[in-house]
């Protein structure tokens, strides 16, 4: 099992960062290789990914969810992986988003890719794209991320 830890600071309040991260259908907008995430019910999602030309589908279960604080998950089918994202308020308008991902590479291609740092770079890129995505968002149904209603 390989563990990856990455973080990013975003210029939005903790509530906005957490709320956006829990909008799983938006993941393809900032996660490279994620084609679709379907929310089955409150704790189950179905993922379709295409990474390096390999399409995979798997189911995941949310194992812990504390609003504005953390969300943890574990795959139930497909690749063995799990993780947790935590949200840390830096001030009223900035949040640190921390990702811890545990995964078990499958096959020779993924093992080699892991040794070359592919998954770590992908996680870093996804967090950077999340930062760009959420900071450039015009707002949501309750107003903009910058606290305006």
Automatic annotation (TrEMBL):
One Pfam family cited in the UniProt record for this chain: Polyketide_cyc
Superkingdom classification of source: Bacteria
Residues of the Coenzyme Q-binding protein COQ10 START domain: 10-127
Transmembrane segments: none
UniProt-listed Gene3D superfamilies: 3.30.530.20
Name of the protein in question: SRPBCC family protein
């Amino acid at each position: 099992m390989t563990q990856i830890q990455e973080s990013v600071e975003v210029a939005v309040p903790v509530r906005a960062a957490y709320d956006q991260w829990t909008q799983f259908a938006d993941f393809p907008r900032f996660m490279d290789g994620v084609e679709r995430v379907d929310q089955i019910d409150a704790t189950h999602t179905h993922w379709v990914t295409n990474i390096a030309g390999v399409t995979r589908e798997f189911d995941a279960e949310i194992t812990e969810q504390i609003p504005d604080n953390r969300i943890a998950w574990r795959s139930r089918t497909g690749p063995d992986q799990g993780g947790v994202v935590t949200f840390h308020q830096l001030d009223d308008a900035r949040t640190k988003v921390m990702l811890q991902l545990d995964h078990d590479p499958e096959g020779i291609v993924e093992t080699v890719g892991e040794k070359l740092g592919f998954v770590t770079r992908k996680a870093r890129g996804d967090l950077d794209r999340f930062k760009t995505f959420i900071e450039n968002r015009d707002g949501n149904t309750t107003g903009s991320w910058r606290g305006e209603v």
